[in-house]
Amino acid sequence: MNVRPIRGASVDARGRRRRLTAVAVGALLLAATACGGGDSDSGSGDGKSPGKGSTAAQSGQSDAVVTIAPKNGAASVDTSGALKVTAAKGRLTEVVVKDDKGTRIDGAISADGSGWTPATHLAASTKYQVHAVAKDAEGRTAAEDASFTTLTPQNTFVGTFTPEDGSTVGVGMPFSVRFTRGITHPEDVEKAIKVTTEPAVDVEGHWFGNDRLDFRPEKYWQEGTKVTVRLNLDGVEGRPGVYGKQAKTVSFTIGRNQVSVVDAKTHKMQVTQDGKVVKTIPVTTGKPGYATWNGEMVISQKFTVTRMNGDTVGYDGEYDIKDVPHAMRLTDSGTFVHGNYWGGDAFGNYNASHGCIGLRDVRGGYDGGVPAAWFFDHSMIGDVVVVKNSTDPVVDPSNGLNGWNMSWEKWKA
């Protein structure tokens, strides 16, 4: 028996399909309206406010603008004042500056986040990489990168210093730097030299003229103090067009506390260690007309044997001794404490020298038992020798390493 399909049912099925298609198209139109936003004609919006989809599309772009100076690829950039990073319509959150060795340059973001400046000058003839990030009010980030190269100076200076790296010195030893060119920007140069100590103590610098800078604490160093000096002079403009070319770290240690006091009236020297007298030595100091300086003087050099010629210190033709034993320099002008084999009975009795402090010795300095040999063997660079009761004035603080003859207030000023 054959069964024919019922036409009415077929019509209902096609109708349902048409209705489903219409619903689907309506859904698509609704979706398109939601994504595209409405307008006054469609009746789906007021035409003034973007839809949610538009906000999401814009959320990846920050309003913040980062600017790096100097511009990317710049050459012969000045080592000071040229590097700046700024942010507009936002706040800086990160600034990283590194040289071509990967060393990071310290700096600080301003309190309002609008700018960053380096904490120090830049090195000369060096390539730097800058990476900076800022955020806008919505927390969206913007980043900028740049690289540049600093200038290569035509004229340079360095600092020669004392004491030597790795040395052990006496409690009176300042750190003294003499520059090969006169400095007209002393603040910039001094800022580039950092002195740290262990244990910590306040250390201040003082300029003698325009080519020498000494550092010391208020009082003699504490025994055992470790001192580290970082000379970051590379790129510092010490005078117009003249740049430092030195980057070096120097460390030294303070040894035992030895201070020796010479009395020009009693003709005796008391050697003290840690405040206790360990030896009293007969001496002779400057005779009338050639008196020894008063004041605190620091041993700056030691010579087992040296030549002393009066012509070099303004005493023309008065003496020329080619083999002075156990000599230790106290001033640049020629004051020494040294062995004396020609003084006869002057030691402990009267003053007979041309301004030096003489201790009994033998010619050639071979006898280790004489006072001059004992003092030489028990002294080190940086030990203090104090002269009192002489008829001469107090030694000038710049004459040798003798800044202890200046008050702390004047030293810091």
From TrEMBL:
Disordered: annotated span: 36-63
Active site annotation, chain numbering: H338 (proton donor/acceptor), C356 (nucleophile)
Any single GO BP term: regulation of cell shape
Domain of life: Bacteria
Keywords: Acyltransferase, Cell membrane, Cell shape, Cell wall biogenesis/degradation, Lipoprotein, Membrane, Palmitate, Peptidoglycan synthesis, Signal, Transferase
GO MF term set: acyltransferase activity; peptidoglycan L,D-transpeptidase activity
UniProt-listed Pfam families: Big_10, YkuD
Keyword Acyltransferase found: yes
CDD domains hit by this protein: LDT_IgD_like_2, YkuD_like
GO cellular component: extracellular region
Listed Gly residues bias regions: 36-50
Pathway(s) the chain acts in: Cell wall biogenesis; peptidoglycan biosynthesis; Glycan biosynthesis
L,D-TPase catalytic domain sequence ranges: 258-388
Listed PROSITE patterns: LD_TPASE (PS52029), PROKAR_LIPOPROTEIN (PS51257)
Alphabetical list of PANTHER family matching this protein: L,D-TRANSPEPTIDASE, L,D-TRANSPEPTIDASE YCIB-RELATED
Name of the protein: L,D-TPase catalytic domain-containing protein
Species: Streptomyces actuosus
